[in-house]
């Protein structure tokens, strides 16, 4: 049997497959974060909380309103996105003139509030969300059984990432957004409603996080703290990719998922922090991130 | 203006501190409940624990030796700082006579040190760490309900005797997880089994897929889950998802009724586990459960039942001894045989461990479950000796060799 | 100026008398340690405008080292404290050297990531006791002469150190070194063009801040008798930011007041509200950032300045 790092090949392939699945989660989450930072300059510390709210929206939707998974994929991000829009309008908007550190602290506070409220309402043992019937079962790939649901997650994430990239880099709307980042006044002078665009962009970034949450719900227990441990990792991913870069976020998300998967085989105890070590290294060697532009 | 406003601010703060210093209650018996009320263990004990204590006090009569019994409670949020500080503060300022709780092994160890320093009995419930009655034992610590030794002995021996000889462990990478794995490994080897491998997952991992894949690749018959709480729930869920529970027997080394409830029988069916108590064992247990359910709308977990039992035992001991003097009460508790709805043939060893009958259970399939919370069937009943051995822990400095 | 001296005099008098006013000494000492921590953090945030998002790393690492030296190796109390501070100084040097090369958000992210690594090391290392923490740290005695087991005596020791740290920070800020820091904060490119080795000044400030934070951590370990993972956690890092922000960054008394408020709130809220504590703390964060950016002391000083003008 061929071995890599002392681990049999089928096992490595299995881990890489799983790494890809996780990577697509990271990619989706970091995409939302990169969109918000790239286009708004806001470090959205509440991203993990929105991810959690998306998962809970799906759970509550199912339990209380009978909304099934497929509708939840659409409605939960919409609902949470709306919340994001509200937060931008009421709070973030007033902080653009002061130092960016305050935006970070505001979203930090919002994350605490959201997590605390959900915690008080739902306790902390986590709730079960069932895998939708259509996606149950698995593909036998020979070296492992891949649950159909996980394959779906990869498909969904990559599609959404692709669509978002296309929207931002290749459409007129995206061009307007990018122009507004560089010179909001000028763009506004053209008659484009910049504040509205900014608001919707924040909402869209938040909706992406919520979508990731809905995708995650059948896989892990839906718990109020599910976002807080994830958000720091996602930040690291975005920093590695380059904080304003959409492509960077997607690629680093996928690559880091793979690296993390390998670490779990070779030195599992460190799988939590391998991302941070890579981030520190990247920041020393290439401060703007792999795909970023020096500001 | 500056001076004045700073004065005012300071005065307000001082007022806040001063008013919060409660007076020592000399005419009361004060029981402290320091536990996790809001985090991972909240459903296992939490508010239900306070309820259980109150039930015991009411059943006892509300007073002992002519003094009213009051309860103070605080959420330690799994922080040793808060647990130990509150314990110390209540001992210094509020006339504390007993502390129940802990849940988290780290917090419990910190609290046991305070118990020794302030000479206040501490009944640790919920924490698994065997070191509480081993290296970290004190004259004032009682470890009630269960510990990692009993858990390992129960689940592992039951499964090995049923044919599950080869094991693979997925362990949470912290002291408790490791202790569980060691206890179970000892039993597996002693019973002629083999451990084919183990992998340590960081505490708080949400995605266990890769660790489980490694378990599957090992070809072992039994999947030993040496973790607790959300770690356990996530790992079991993933095991189901990847079809691993079809080829390997899942063994939970520590799980509670509340976890099974959250996971649903669909996911948890067939799971082996060891517990110190179950609400549906007999009429006595059902009677307690019914009262508890009326208040909390959930069936009690083993720890919540332990809370009631421990409180009752303490109050009885105080009555017999005629005072709340810690040394006398501890001596009395260690002399008493415990036979109530919670524990059969129970007693407290020299090292502080409360040993009693334990049960190895298997989680029912959805078809087998006839009514809400009908989750377990008994596989094996273990005597105290089978569960924890006949000798007190030799690593405890108090135990005479 | 006279008003300032009067205020300090009153505060000192109150602090000296506190144990005799029926206030719980251990709680007061906890307040002092966190106030020290916040003041050290403020040196970075308030006077150099560098937001370190992982400051608990220095606080907690020092706590662990002091605990380890006094328990396992039987070192004396003062030596243990010095050992802890030395380690946090070293950590500050290493992390600072990597972080100061970048600014703003990137700086914060690096400190965050490296603090996570420190957390991980503390989790895995044998001597820290992992999840259980390092327990049973003895108070020991001061230079072998004055036993510190008595809460009141320990209180005065901690108070003395606190006052020392406070005065030290004031001297740093008012010194030529502090002036350069102010210049860097006001306009970094200009400071560079004037020939100042900006990175070196920033690093020095960082190391000083880390060392003082370490001192606070060591004392806390001795006061409470243990060092645990929450001392190096993200939560503690977030708390010290809140304390400084709430009290007023860039002022001297601000962090002290902020620390008092936050620690007291946590202490008494945890009795009552459990999970709602984070909601309340989050709400305070939001309020501070939106309308209370100068913090308590900052607002008071501004009103005083306006009246004087």
Description of the molecule:
The complex is a heterotrimer of chains A (295), B (401) and C (309). Chain A has 295 residues and is mainly α. Chain A has 11 helices and 4 strands. Chain A has helices at 9-40, 47-65, 69-90, 100-122, 148-170, 172-182, 184-189, 194-216, 228-241, 246-266, 274-285, and strands at 3-4, 7-8, 138-140, 145-147. The longest helix of chain A has 32 residues, at 9-40. Helix content of chain B is 45%, strand content 19%. Chain B contains 15 helices and 15 strands. The N and C termini of chain B lie far apart (70 Å). The model of chain B is unreliable at 1-5 and 18-23 (pLDDT under 50). Chain C has 309 residues and is mainly alpha-helical. The two termini of chain C are 15 Å apart. Classes of the chains: A mainly alpha (295), B alpha/beta (401), C mainly alpha (309). Chains in contact: A-B, A-C, B-C. The B-C interface holds B 1-3, 5-7, 9-10, 13-14, 16-18, 20-21, 37-38, 74-77, 79-82, 84-85, 88-89, 92-93, 104-106, 109-110, 113, 129, 136, 174-176, 203 and C 3-4, 6-7, 10-11, 14, 21-24, 26-27, 30, 123, 129-133, 135-136, 224-226, 228, 230-231, 253, 257, 260-261, 264, 268, 270-271, 274-275, 277, 296, 300-301, 303-304, 307.
Topology record:
The complex is a heterotrimer of chains A (295), B (401) and C (309).
Chain A: E1 3-4, E2 7-8, H1 9-40, H2 47-65, H3 69-90, H4 100-122, E3 138-140, E4 145-147, H5 148-170, H6 172-182, H7 184-189, H8 194-216, H9 228-241, H10 246-266, H11 274-285
Antiparallel strand pairs in A: 1-2, 3-4
Helix pairs in contact in A: 1-5, 1-8, 1-9, 1-10, 2-3, 2-4, 2-8, 3-8, 5-6, 9-10, 9-11
Chain B: H1 2-20, E1 28-35, H2 46-60, E2 63-64, E3 67-75, H3 80-93, E4 96-102, H4 105-118, E5 122-125, E6 141-143, H5 148-161, E7 166-172, H6 175-190, E8 194-201, H7 209-218, E9 222-226, H8 229-241, H9 244-247, E10 249-252, H10 257-263, H11 265-268, E11 272-275, H12 283-296, H13 302-321, H14 326-335, E12 347-348, E13 354-355, E14 358-363, E15 376-382, H15 384-388
Parallel strand pairs in B: 1-3, 1-4, 4-5, 5-6, 7-8, 7-9, 9-10
Antiparallel strand pairs in B: 2-3, 11-14, 12-13, 14-15
Chain C: H1 2-17, H2 25-48, H3 56-71, H4 77-99, H5 104-124, E1 141-142, E2 146-147, H6 151-174, H7 176-186, H8 188-193, H9 198-224, H10 234-247, H11 254-272, H12 276-291, H13 295-308
